């Protein structure tokens, strides 16, 4: 059976499963659409949360960025994992106790202000749309390769699939679909990692193989990798970058994680407050199974690529373009891998042509520039092909990559549709809307969000993980401070919280748009996105903590200068902080 047919069978079977679950668990009420009727088992919710969390950025893009940059991009692992701990300990149980359906609903009630709620809706939509661009980008990459179409066509196919099961099932359908998607994605990620670790180190456990011995050279794997990348003018794989940027970026991901609306609403689906804590614990276990393997996958992918291009070693001639391996031919079709023969010798020169220290060596070897451009988002998906693993493994990782992208996209789209239909339409525009009308509005809002995300995903502001990191920065600067102050401070009032969110959102958006273009539209940026133009050297992806500080500072100063919250609101805050029991859902 050829690879294309095998891809269609395995990916098609997984999609049939997702759509079948969505039909079986179709939401018939707003309680089912928004919160799965609060009847999800904590273990199941932990698995669904892990799938919701481990997006295209985790599955497809994170290992690719680690492969390219090395130790410096371990910030993704540290930030996302640490943020989940913050979410589990500081936010999830208290928000569940409050008994609402959405994050803006909590903010509106806690800060006794429709203005605060509307501000939270705007923040949530901007965060979620930015995040879902990254998911659709990742799904488009996967579809483009394994259905052998260009990346734009792959993106439209991805949007059609997620439209069917997300719009139909709501939270109830999405929850059980995400359980199935977690099982698919973790198997798909682990099996190739085990094979490749065995090939390179003889150790079947990838995270041990990373610190093991490279079988062919008898050197430690990381030492061997450092050697081959520095031979080509790249920085050492284990070298550290700017500690300030690493710290800010890690912090941005951490507090951004704790403020992500699509993850927070998962904790509204369990029966009790204690179940919210257990859900978070189980989710961390399920997430760790993939995150422990990601650094190994990234390192081994980088080594495999260089060995492919320089089969006789980095000191020898590169492979002839006409003799390039099949995996390169396959990915060239997508436009995500490109070759340009700059010196006309017919060989693939792959090196760091921006390294001044390597320029003399490159000139001596007759190289006139790097000739191979590899999109970071393809490395995990291409890894089984690079390592020449069986066809069924290649098809399986295709299904896993798509499961990761579509599961998170569905959660984000639900957060957007809930904010629009429940917080905006029902509470602002049409309070007398029927439950059936609200359900229809939610589905229309979700369809609209899919269309916007797809159009923006055609020209994303970065790789999948980089685009997602921008969403984390926005969440860090807006939602996280409001939730923390809402739960742990009785003194922060409605005006302070509202102005804090506005300041955090506006300043952070302006910083992002300055370098990445207005609303991420290519060519509209005011400054080139290069380190020389950054304020104090802070890149857009690491600006979240600065926005958060401005949010906290504004909220505190304004609240201290204005009237304290009413007594009943202060009593409400006190009751939230005692995690016993759970209020029934209200306001729907």
UniProtKB/TrEMBL annotation:
The listed locations are: Membrane
- Please give, as recorded in its UniProt entry, the membrane topology of this protein: Multi-pass membrane protein
| Organism superkingdom | Bacteria
UniProt keyword list = Cell membrane, Ion transport, Membrane, Sodium, Sodium transport, Symport, Transmembrane, Transmembrane helix, Transport
Listed Pfam families: SSF
Transmembrane feature ranges: 6-25, 46-71, 77-95, 115-133, 153-170, 182-200, 248-268, 280-301, 392-420, 440-458, 464-487, 499-522, 534-558
Would the keyword Cell membrane turn up in this protein's UniProt record?
yes
Q: Cite the PANTHER family for this sequence.
A: NA(+):SOLUTE SYMPORTER (SSF FAMILY), SODIUM/PROLINE SYMPORTER-RELATED
Family in the record? Belongs to the sodium:solute symporter (SSF) (TC 2.A.21) family.
Name of the protein: Cation/acetate symporter
Q: What's the source species for this entry?
A: Peteryoungia aggregata LMG 23059
* Organism placement in taxonomy: Bacteria, Pseudomonadati, Pseudomonadota, Alphaproteobacteria, Hyphomicrobiales
